Amino acid sequence: MIVHKLKVIEQMAKGNGLAAHFEDITIQGVSIDSRTIKEGNLFVPIIRQLDGHNYVEEAITKGAAASLWQMDHPNAPDNVPLIYVDDCLEALQNIAASYRRELSLKVIGVTGSNGKTTTKDMINSVLSTTYRVHKTAGNLNSQIGVPLTILDMDKSTEAAVIEMGMSERGQIARLSHIARPDIAVITMIGVSHLSTLGSREQIAAAKLEIVTGMQDNGVLIYNGDEPLLTRGLQEMNIEKSISLVSFGEDETNAYRAGAVETSSEGSNFTVGDDKFYIPLLGAHNISNALAAIAVAAIMGIPPAKADEGLRALKITGMRMEKIITTSGFTIINDAWNASPVSLAAAIKTFEQLPGYSRKYAVLGDMLELGEQEEEFHRETGRNIDPDLIDYVYTVGTLGKYIALEAEKKFPSGRVRAFSSKDELIEHVKTELKDNDAILLKGSRGMQLETVVQALLQ
């Protein structure tokens, strides 16, 4: 983690006003949460739903060595080591960007509409066979999360895998300039954030912003099956030397999977003459693995070592997570998030799982899809195969459109739209039997993991 005297932190933050007798205090690490503050931390009072300035004195009492203070806020506490800044979020980002320049390491930035976290986990697992690696914890991929990830790194770190998310134009560019990736990965372009960006073209342009902060002579690894990325790269005026490496199903891609064999436990495949295995459900995860294999090659890791890393993969929870319950039924927990592309992939994987008595698909709303949200949900319902899935249950105001289309093909009573998760839980608990399987997937705002937790009780 970052360790510096406060006078240096003041300069990194582009702040001022630190009292001279506090300049030699050393901070160790940065926190934005007074509840989890650690001894010696710098507290950064971010303004969100709650104003962090209301918790500065609490953070100091709990062991924080110092705090930032935004100058437009009155009543700064007396006799507390404070650095005054124009904007606390911007100051946090400034400190992270400055600290990144001190680190001698390779940074791999990962973005895309779907598959960011799984790809990050794969790259981390592969690189960990050879390097000391730091990765984004969980889903801390935001304008706050990326700086905190960087500031948590030790100077002994040799490679960092940093996930970058966004909700509007300009955010990936900002994160890229903070992290300065040596290698960047764009997993794919979907339709999430249509409500704010308006088109897939704009989503692609937003993801391609990752190029803007890359190091000279960096490498961009991108999904070559997506014409919006290919065309967008051709139209960009890239003012530095960036090598391009593509992956995907098309034969023109540099990294392409062959001899694919999937099972209920994972997938075997080849890349050229080299064999690989990933212990993850769903053939769609092979695409993410191709990006990780490409990163490994650039970082000098031989294919056998990359395969070793993929076999040892541990993914962040709620992503096609297979849970065999004590009652004998299986839960496929993919409740972290959902978009039309990721939901279709999850349903296809679930349809192809063999050996279960009955299969239940529990699907929640997909959010942030803009004016086409109803049609995206209806299309999902139309595409579910009643010969491969036995029951379709939905929850949410948009989920009902999935049910409306699915019930046109399914036998009577096999499709239900629930108005609440409690109602859904009560019904499903009476239905599931030994050797049944249930898939749960919906957008983050639906929090379908609460259904998983109820079923495990």
Could you walk me through the main structural features you see in this protein, from its secondary elements to its overall organization?
The strands form five sheets. Strands 8-9-7-10-11-12 form a six-stranded parallel β-sheet, sandwiched between helices. It is 33% helix and 20% strand. The two termini are 38 Å apart. It has 457 residues and is an alpha/beta fold. It has helices at 6-13, 56-61, 88-102, 116-127, 145-151, 171-179, 194-197, 200-208, 227-235, 285-298, 303-311, 340-352, 373-383, 399-406, 421-431, 449-456; strands at 3-5, 26-28, 30-31, 42-43, 66-70, 82-85, 106-111, 133-135, 159-163, 183-186, 218-223, 242-247, 258-262, 267-271, 274-278, 321-324, 330-333, 359-364, 391-395, 415-418, 437-441. The mean pLDDT is 95.
Features of this protein?
457 residues; alpha/beta; Udp-n-acetylmuramoylalanyl-d-glutamate--2,6- Diaminopimelate Ligase, Chain: A, domain 1; Protein-Tyrosine Phosphatase, Chain A; 3 domains; 6-stranded parallel β-sheet; 6-stranded mixed β-sheet; 21 strands; 20% strand; globular
